[in-house]
Every structure is written in C-alpha cells, then in structure tokens.
Structures
1.
Amino acid sequence: MKFLLVFDFDHTIIDENSDTWIVKCAPERKLPNGLRNSYQPGHWTEYMGRVFVYLGDNGVKEDEMRRTMTTIPFTAGMIDLLGFIGENKELFDCIIVSDSNTVFIDWILKAADCHEVFDEVFTNPASFSSTGYLTVQNFHAHHCPKCPKNLCKRKVLKEFLDKQLERGVSYTQIVYIGDGGNDLCPVMFLKKNDIAMPRQGYTLEKKISQLAQDLRPVQCSVLAWSSAADIMSYLKLLIKK
C-alpha cells in the first residue's frame, strides 16, 4: 500500500509566487513597465528569462537572490505536513511538479531542511551562467493545447507513473495538491479512486467547480484545503484505513 503525493509549489508549498518574489531584488523592488508588459500568455518562462537578464544587468548577484528567496513564507501548516510525510516515507512517495525553477525550489527547500521529503522535483531547469546571470529553460516540449508552452503537468505525471510501473511500483491512490489553472490538466487525468486537493479560493478550485456546473465533473474526489493541517488530517485518515 503506497500513496503518491503530487505537490505544486507556488501558492501551495510556499504562500507566494517565487517568480514574482524575486522582483524584491530589482532596483526599487520593481520592474520597468516595458519589461512587465512584455509577458505573453503561455510564455512565462521566456518572460522570466528577460527578468533574470534585467536583474543581472543591474548587478544582482546569486547570494542576494538566495537570501531574498529563502525569506518566502511557507503556507500555514506546511512545514508540519512535510515533517509528517517525512516520518511516513514508507507509505508516501512525494513529488513536486511546478512552473517555478530548479534553483529557486532547491534553495527554498534546503533552507527549510525539507528537501529530502521529495523523491523528485519536475520544474524548469535553471542555472547561473559564467557571467553570474540566472538562466532558465522550458521543462519540456508537449502538444497539449490547454497548458503553457513549457510545461504540461499531466504529461509529467503520466510519464512518472509509467516509469514507476516499469520499476514495479503502483499506487493505491494519488493525492494531487495544487492551486493554479495549470493544475487542472493533471487533475482531469486522475481516476475515480484518486483525490484532488485544490486550495480554497484559488483558480484550481474555481475551475473544478465550473466543470461540475457544466456537468463535466472531474472523475476523482475533490477536497479543498485552506491550511496544510487540512491535508495532514486527510493523510492521517488515509493511512488508518
């Protein structure tokens, strides 16, 4: 009996958006209008690439970025939840699927000493260039019309499950914990026995209820959460069964 926990990162594990938080490093803690207005829907990663160039051009170094990123607050109860999962790793496999980037997630999880809870992190690859600029790339290419160009979370989840099956690992239940519009695609892939846990009041919850109103409900069960304590209560019930 093993459960798979799939976490989004921004506004789920942390209570902010890591990509917008980095703007605190910019001169006057804001971006020029031209740069801000250069974002095109579905092309967030390219936009962030331009933000990182701007920060680099303004002399923002890796140390300052790291210091800023590690001040992001975790969502209420999240550190306790991750501790609980860590204590029950024989029952839970745990992955992150996020539109953030490897550098930010790595810094934040390591600073809070909870990186070992996660078996794998699927996010946009980032690194510092020889000139000290942070660069970011698309996670993968895909053909899903519903998802941003750089990341289809359904594809990531499906490929992970296929790989696990090849290793002889299958899951009693998948628990998907997220908040955003790009979490809907993987949630629609979940089966009847699985559970989606959208954050209360956020886009994912609204999109799931809109589908139900349109009589196209998702197959899985849905349980909204407002604090990670709600998620922990559910997981405790799960392992008692």
Note: The chain has ten helices and eight strands.
2.
Amino acid sequence: QSYCHRLQHDMYFLTSTSRLNEQVVDKIVLQLNRVYPQILTNEEAEKFRNPKASLHTRLSDLLKHLQKKGDRHCQEFYRALQINAEQLFNDLPSRKILKTPDPTEIDTDKEQYMLNDRGPVFFLACFSMAAGLALFWYCCNSETQVIGRPRRILGFSPIIIGRHVRNICMLYLEDISRN
C-alpha cells in the first residue's frame, strides 16, 4: 500500500476527537516545515498552525494537502507522527493491517503460550512420572549395590539433599525400618 492510501485509510482515526492534541499537531507541522526535505513551506505551516481554526479542520486540511502532494509527503507525515506520538502511530488502523501475520508463518509468541498452557498440575504429574521412572530404574538396576530400603530411596539424591543431611536421614530411616 502506498502512504497516500494508508493516510486516506487512517484519516478518520486521526481526526476523531481527542486522538491528537494541539501540541502534537503543532510539533508535526513544525517538523514537516523544518526538517529536510522540507515538506511544508512557511506559509503552509502557518496556515496549519493557525490557532483561530479548529484543530479538526486544521488536521483534516493538512492530511488532504499531504495526499495531494504525493507519497513522499505522506511518508514524512508518518515519520513525524511516529516521532511525536509513537503510541498513536502504533494504534493506526493501517499499521494493524500491516502487522497481521502471514497465515503460513509460525507465530513464536503464540507457540510459546501454547506449550505452556497446561498449568502446574500437568507439570507436577510429568515430574512425578519422571521421578518415579528414575526411582524404578535405580532400584531395579542389578549393578547398584544398595543395602536397605532407605538407601534405595535417598541414595540417588546427593544433589537435592546435602551430603550431611542425607546421611542423617538415611540413618534415621534405617533405624525406623529395623524397628
């Protein structure tokens, strides 16, 4: 889409009440007047900054004037709008159309949420399953020489429980299992 068509599409959004205040419009007009390439002449800038006319009228006239001048002038208006009112620039209807993703493209943000939408119960179930399989594999392994039931349970967790605490727990569990 050309910038003139985009500006025509965004005109109602920009001229609706309380979208742009007078200060922002003045900054945009001054930027279009002072920044190279000069889009508005001094006379045109004075016309669009005239406080006697209503803001809606000045803004509508400015947008129509830029559309008549061509695509480069409209592009510079969008650049000035982005610099002076970035939030409004991001909310423009033409920007939302440009941001719509290609249906064949994978949206990584959406994919990230799709993988993480299961919740804590699902995580605990998976973790319990993995821990159970690890415990089963450890206890049924014929190469491990484990004496006593507590050693089977706590013997594989030196990382989780400190060595000193693990030894005390194993002694306590062995003592309980004898009684």
Note: The chain has a mean pLDDT of 77.
3.
Amino acid sequence: MAGGGDSLRALLRAANALLQQRRYHAALAVIKGFRNGAVYGAKIRAPHALVMTFLFKSGSLREKLKSIAQATYAHSRNLACFVFTYKGLLAAQSRLQGKKIPFHSFLAACIGGWLVFGDNNPINSQIIMYLLSRILFGLSRLAVEKGYIPQPKQDPFPLLAALVWGTVLWLFEYHRETLQPSLQSSMTYLYEDSEVWHDVSDFLIYNKRTDSK
C-alpha cells in the first residue's frame, strides 16, 4: 500500500517538475487552453441551455435533458478546439519568426474561426453574434481612443439603445425570419403571447392554457 503511495507521489513530483520547464511552456499552454476552453464552454452553455429548453421547448424530460447535454457538449468542444488551434498557431508563428507580432493573433484566430466555427449551426451562430456585438463596441471605443472619430460630447448610449430596440422590434414584426430562432421565441413570448388569454389562469398564472376549454 505504501509502495503505491510512494509511486503516486513520485509521479506527481515528476509532473510538477515538467510543468516548470520553460522550454515546454508553449506546448503546455496549448493543452491548458484546451482544458480551459472545454470547462468554460460547459459553464456558459449548460445554464443557458437549461433555461431556454425548459422555457421554450416541448417534449419529454428525457428529450429536454438530451438537448441540454448536446448543446453543452457542442459549445464546450468547439471552444476547446478553438483555443487549442489558436494557441498552437500563435506558438508556431512566434517560433518561425522569432517573435510575437499583433498580426499573429489575427491570423491564428481567423484560421481557428474558419475551422472550428465555420459551420452555420445554432450554437456557432449564437457565439458569433455574441462576439460581433462586443467587437462593434470595442472598435467604436478604439476609434475614439485613437482619435479617428471625435469624443462624443454626450453619452451616445441612450441613442444606441433606442436604435437597437427600434430595429429589432421592426424586424420581429415585419421580417421575423431574419432573426435568430431563440430570439424569435423570446419575443413571441413577450409580445405575442401577452395578447392572448381566456381567463385568469392564463392571464396571470400560466402563459397558455394546457386544457381543451
């Protein structure tokens, strides 16, 4: 029994010594990036899939749980593979050119995005839309910071909020098919289902009646 414990401790010491080797840092960072991508993807997708599935999807409990598991796995796998690809390509470019330059990040991410997120499916679509909104905010701030556009005299956020809500509700009312399915479901619940009721049960307690009255 003691021999087994000694062997485990020796293995852990060897692993820790390997992790401290600077020459293996780039390769180990790629591996840990894969690990972090998988964990983060699961943490982000599982609660979202749980809420959206039980709010808007029909079917048995088993079917719902299967849908949640599939969405969580897809998000976790894709993010893990992207981080692995991105960090691997960064390390390769840096090694080939002897230094790290800003273009390396852009090129590595472009290739990773094409390979991992290029398939047009609901999971990838949600991730790309999430990133796109933040990119637009980031580029706007960068443009002001660099002096490409003048610093606004007043906070432009109220105007942005008005335009965003005005546009999305116009699209929902008249060009609904252009919106992402989960957004359509959310807006249907908020703006259409609130127009229909029969009695107090589906006015205050439930969204829709489940009986055949």
Note: Residues 123-151 form one domain.
4.
Amino acid sequence: QCPGIEPLCLDLADWDATEAAVGAAGPFELLVNNAAVAVLQPFLEVTRAALQRSLDVNFGAVLHVSQIVARQMIAQGVPGAIVNVSSQASQRALRDHAVYCSTKSALDMLSKVMAMELGPHKIRVNTVNPTVVMTDMGRINWSDPQKSAAMINRIPLGKFAEVDDVVNSILFLLSDKSAMTTGSSLMVDGGFLVS
C-alpha cells in the first residue's frame, strides 16, 4: 500500500545482522516497533527457550532497533517519533501469559525511559496497547465463540480490535497531532482494562 516502504527480512534477535541492515536503511524520522512473539505456557511450565525467545523479540529487539534509529535521528538533528506496539496484557494478568505479559510490561517501562532520555533530542516515544486484534492470525485463534466469549464479555465495546483501529492509533502518535504526547500508553482495548 506504501510503495516507498522497503521491507527488511531478518532475525531481530541477531543483533549484528540487525545493526547492519537497519543501520544501512536510514535516514529515519519515524519508527514503529511491531515485531512480537507469544509463546503461551502455564507459569509452572515456562521453558527457558520460550523465555529467551520472548525477551529477544518483545524486548531486546525493540531496545536495539530503537537505539540504531534514535542515534541516526540525533545525528541528523531532526525531531522524530517512535511507537512501540505493546498490549493490554502489559497491564492485566492473563492465564498462560506469564512471559508475554511480563515482556510487554517491560516494553511499557522501556518506552517511558526512552521518552525521558530522548525527549531532549525532540524524539517522542509512546506505546499503543491493543486488545486481541483481528489479523489473519487473530481470526484463526479467536474465531471460536466459546474461546472468545470470556474475553469479549470483559470488553465494554463488545468486540475485538480491527487492524485499522491499531493503525490509526499509531498514525496519531507518529503525527504532529500528538506533538505534546510522549511517555504515554494509548489503550486500544475497547475498555477491557476498565472492566
């Protein structure tokens, strides 16, 4: 949909490959960190491999890619905006989500520290925290009414998010319309967290 965007396909857990690819792709003014994994396991069954993979992608990759991009923004002397895609799961415990909830909570705090440290360079950092989003994967995992009912019943708006709900929130946080917003989390959860 955007012909000026060139995708880079790489393993974000590989810091050297990421540094080379992202470092050569600039200059940047905007960044959206959206890569994530969700390896769902009961707390007592969490494996080291699941923990490490989740930390590498959900937290470490955001930290590293943001470092690369923010350094370029600072070197160019231009203002910028970074949006990290978090989750409602950063704020509410969910069964079998011990690692996912924890990495998303860590991402929220990382975003606040980034906002504090990058603010003097005119770089804003925020998160969007969606509920279940009806991507292709979301439809596969949450189309069963019996599985989805418990979650939807806790959402005052009575539905899951569509991709455009998240995209529009990201676009707002990247735009000048949110010029005084940094260090914030925008909940895109239909009210899940207030129920």
Note: The helical segments are 15-23, 48-76, 98-118, 136-142, 145-152, 163-174.
